[in-house]
Amino acid sequence: MAGPKRTLSMPAVPAGAGSDTLRLRQPADLAADMDMDDTGAPHDNGPAAGAATATATAGPSASGANRIAHVVADLDAIQRQVLDDLRVFVSQQNTRLAKSKAHTHHLAAEFASLEVRLAQAVADRDALVAAVHKLEEEMQDRDTKIATLAELAQHASEELAAKDDQVEQLADQLTAAASQLQDLESERDQAIAQAEDAEQRLRVRSAEIDVLQEDLARKADMTRDLEEEVQRLTGEHTSLVYERENLINQVARHEGRIQKLAEQTKAMAELESFARNAQDEMATLTQQIESKDLELIRVSSLLEDSGVQRSGLEDQLREEQSKYKTQLESIELLHNTMDELQGKNRHLDQELETARKRIAEFETAAAAGGGATGAAESAARGEPSRGMLLPAAEEDDMGVRNDAIMKLQKGLPFAIPKTRGPSSIMSTSEHIFSTLERLGIGNKRKAGAMSTVGDGFRAPDPIAKRRALDSISVTGRSEFRMPTTPAAPRLGQSTTLTTRAGAVPSVSPRLGVIPKSTVVTFSGFRESLPGFHPKLKETLSQHILDLNGGVKHESDEFDYSITHVLTPPNSRTIKTLAAALSHRFLVFDVQWVYDSVKAGKFLPVEPKHGVRYFNTPFKGKTLCITDAFREENAARVFRMENAELLVQKYGKGIIVSDPNKADWVLTSASDKSTYKGRVIDWTAFIKIIVPDYQKESS
């Protein structure tokens, strides 16, 4: 093609410009461009212009080719400008959509509706991309057509008019492309508005999430405060329970002291009897001394000259006085012993009264935490302990005291010699001191008194001794009353408890076998559990007996003498649940027995070994077993029986038939009825008793 191509001065269309920005060149502009020569200079209107016009007229073919070249160049520029603008718009649109899509992917879980809208926007974008590709294909077709037109223009300038028509058609197509671009821009604005709407909703949701997070943090703080308060109250309750157990043990020790005091009182009665006998003997000796004095006076008057006979009578008188002094010393020793026993009796009464007051105060303070046990209540009323465990220090000498106590209760008197004379006095004193020594009192005083008897007596004033003896009144001895010891009622059935001494009743009768401080039973042992195989029971039982503990044999009912239950975790036997409601130790690890064997004594049950519950969920509450629960468990009737037993006997609750009057309603999981009380199923019922229970997967 001759001559350089001319470039139309069409203004560029910026991205996002309005429809009026893109303005096609008018024919007048094209004509003005066509009036330019090949070098770009304007034509003159002078003679040279006329000559040039003539030259142009002479060569119409060359002028048409130039015009076509200018048109083609303009079309190329317009095409490139439109394509560039479209590419920039598509690139910007793709960038915005990619950002919007990436942003929405992070919030897809919470904003499903926004994701649907963004998916629609992506679909629109794909449609726009397809339209752009279609336009590019059309532009390629136009390029092909333009190339064809250029070749045709070189060979046939006569077809210029037809080419002008084609140029007009191309202008129309460009107008249509501009309108399409305008539509794409409006769709882009809609997509931007939708994205801004989504961002606004996202900010609203974020604000709502922040508010919810603040509420959650505030509730978490309140929960932590409540947990700390629960832990504090649990610690206080545990300390109160331990203090109650200590007070119960103190009451048991005081009761042991009372029994010991009863023994001493019985011995004092015997000592009083001996004192009365000694007084009679002393009166007899006094009469003998007086008669001897009279006889001495009479003999002295008759035998004034007989010094030998007088000397013999004086020796006899000194001998009688020595006997009198010996009896006075024995009586003084007996009165000192009586004073000591009276002091011990008063001291024990004061300690017992103080312990009872402390137990009463403790029961009043612990009334809100579940109340006191029957043993503490009976101790506060002055009744004997029911199945009370005595301290180990007092268990050692109980075997020695039991014989003497049994004699005291049967009314068997101690064998006290009733003979008179010096030898009878010494033998009687020795028997009394041996009795006191066997009871554990008066050892030091006995040693001092016997040494005095062996070495010779002092010479006390007989008149002062007589006055001291006469000052003893019957009312002074009335303080030594034998306290009555009624038989302690038995707890539960008389079952068999295995100890190292053999099979004995687990509930000890009065003054019988001392209850063991640790009594263990087994529950839930099965062959399918390696750690709780039934064959382990024999080995564990022997270890428990070696530690001076007791083993409760198998039985259907729970015995209150049991202190520890060895059972697998999540065991729901009636014995395990009854032990939990009775505040007994649930030991879930047999290693506790082996560790106790290594230590040589029963170790405290730590959290790694087991647990002990102090809650009383059913105490004073009512529970109703619905017909739906009975129908669901028709093949497991034991559930109804166990529920009634656990609530009434061990939980101290009440079973009612009307569900609208019950605090707890035990029903099936499929029951959709509405009740006034709290609705629970069998699993929830077990969790109320054992909060740590987890249902086994079937």
From TrEMBL:
Positions of the BRCT domain: 517-610
Gene3D superfamilies assigned to the protein according to its UniProt record, in alphabetical order: BRCT domain
Region of interest (Disordered), ranges: 1-62
InterPro entries the UniProt entry points to: BRCT_dom, BRCT_dom_sf
Ranges in a coiled coil: 118-295, 331-365
Biased composition (Low complexity): 46-62
Keyword field contains Coiled coil: yes
Keywords, in A-Z order: Coiled coil
Protein name: BRCT domain-containing protein
UniProt organism field: Allomyces macrogynus (strain ATCC 38327) (Allomyces javanicus var. macrogynus)
